From TrEMBL:
Residues 77-156 have a biased composition (Acidic residues). It comes from Plasmodium malariae. The lineage of its organism: Eukaryota, Sar, Alveolata, Apicomplexa, Aconoidasida. This is Uncharacterized protein. Residues 1-27, 50-156 are annotated as: Disordered. Residues 1-13 have a biased composition (Polar residues). It comes from the Eukaryota.
Length: 156
């Protein structure tokens, strides 16, 4: 099997005589460079043999092995993990919203209770004032009666 590498000075892919047989192509500098020269060349990638279009190989290598090509091919495991993470975040947000709603309801209930207590206190105060007024009226009536009795006694 021939091993290839990217020659930056000549901007082309050349045969690499120094590479030992059985090694995989792992040079990240190959990503996105000289893809047209990869046509119909076989390369061993992690025990899988790729035979086909150079751009396909370049994309596979760069997406799964690193390099400076930012195009990402979908990975079911990563997608599932991301979906689970998103679901967890959504659940956490929902829980937080529910907690906030419960807190708001509790605050409203507390405010209502406080208002009721204030109303009760006001009613009690009014009742006390009415009682005091009644007592004062009774006292005045008693005084008037006493005065009348005294006047009657004086007349006799």
């Amino acid at each position: 099997m021939e091993f290839m590498s990217y020659n930056e000075s000549s901007n082309e892919i050349v045969q690499d005589e120094n590479q030992e047989e059985g090694m995989n192509v792992s040079d990240e500098s190959l990503c996105g460079k000289g893809a047209e020269q990869w046509e119909d060349v076989k390369y061993e990638i992690a025990d899988d043999v790729f035979d086909g279009d150079a751009n396909d190989y370049s994309n596979d290598y760069c997406n799964y092995g690193g390099g400076d090509n930012n195009v990402q091919r979908s990975d079911p495991i990563l997608e599932e993990a991301e979906e689970e993470e998103e679901e967890e975040e959504e659940e956490e947000e929902e829980e937080e919203e529910e907690e906030e709603e419960e807190e708001e309801e509790e605050e409203e209930e507390e405010e209502e209770e406080e208002e009721e207590e204030e109303e009760e206190e006001e009613e009690e105060e009014e009742e006390e004032e009415e009682e005091e007024e009644e007592e004062e009226e009774e006292e005045e009536e008693e005084e008037e009666e006493e005065e009348e009795e005294e006047e009657e006694e004086e007349e006799e």
